[in-house]
């Protein structure tokens, strides 16, 4: 494989193409400055304007959200896993029917595996543009997003209607629901009752890992962050490892399925038969299955990276109550 072949499987941070109308709250004040990025896989965007950078199936999706200060992503739920790590900024994650059941603040490098089946949202509470990177379970990312009723109702007041087909229609641009397509129905009270309301104390210990703790745990070997034997014990259909300068090795290895490298700090040199490429923080690299490769820091200073690979576990529910 040539370096150019590998470059075609790298999405550079500076080359990310955003979608500003990805979801139903794109016109709602407080949420109308979001930028959504679909990096690997189809993602869960409701907009035909969403650009997909790499469409190769991996068993999971990689995406990102970029938001200026005080901008939030509205309350929604997924049927499969949704994992975030903070690349830039300071973020508040909150959950529950009204977003008041619990919350946690994450700093750069921290990671959260938000339980499935609960309404969740997040906002940039930092002082500059922030970015969070996301891993979504399954190739189809669980079949879309389930919105809290008030989100759908607020969106309609600002011209956006979500069809029952999962597509957005912007009345401000003259769009209307096609014949035969009804608007997405809001959840009934009985349906809403099936969504748990876990407290902060119930969620955080088993679903949040702090960057500095991971750095310490990855001192001698990569830290298993999410997985059957991970710090956050879960089987969401993929595993997440954390690697630092201390635990990186130039020993070549391969996987029987595509894997993804996502640097958090420092520059990393990925070597393979045929050449090598260098990754910077915010870059996302899809490593082909069965390709022998190694990844080590290429410069002095702090270096850390997240690594994601699919497993044979079903990408199903992760919250047991």
Architecture of the largest domain, according to CATH? Sandwich
Beta percentage is 35-45%
Order of helices and strands: HEEEEEEEEEEEEHEEHHEHEEEEEEEEEE
Rg over CA atoms, rounded to whole Å, is: 19 Å
What summary fits the major beta sheet?
7 strands, mixed
The stretches of 5 or more residues where confidence is low (pLDDT under 50) are: none
Strand order of the largest sheet: 1-23-20-25-18-16-17
CATH topology annotation of the largest domain: Jelly Rolls
CATH superfamily of the largest domain: Jelly Rolls
Name of the CATH first level of the largest domain: Mainly Beta
Number of helical runs? Answer: 5
The global form is globular
Secondary-structure blueprint of this entry?
Blueprint: H1 3-7, E1 10-11, E2 35-40, E3 52-54, E4 60-67, E5 72-77, E6 82-88, E7 91-95, E8 102-106, E9 111-114, E10 120-124, E11 130-137, E12 146-147, H2 149-156, E13 160-162, E14 168-170, H3 189-192, H4 200-207, E15 208-209, H5 211-217, E16 223-227, E17 232-233, E18 238-244, E19 249-253, E20 259-265, E21 268-272, E22 275-279, E23 284-287, E24 293-297, E25 304-310
Parallel strand pairs: 2-3, 16-17
Antiparallel strand pairs: 1-23, 2-4, 4-11, 5-10, 5-12, 6-9, 6-11, 7-8, 7-10, 9-15, 13-14, 16-18, 18-25, 19-24, 20-23, 20-25, 21-22, 21-24
Gist of the model:
The protein is mainly beta. The protein contains 5 helices and 25 strands. A hairpin with a 2-residue loop joins strand 21 and strand 22.
Comma- or semicolon-separated keywords:
seven-stranded mixed beta sheet; Jelly Rolls; 2 domains; 5 helices; 321 residues; globular; single chain; mainly beta
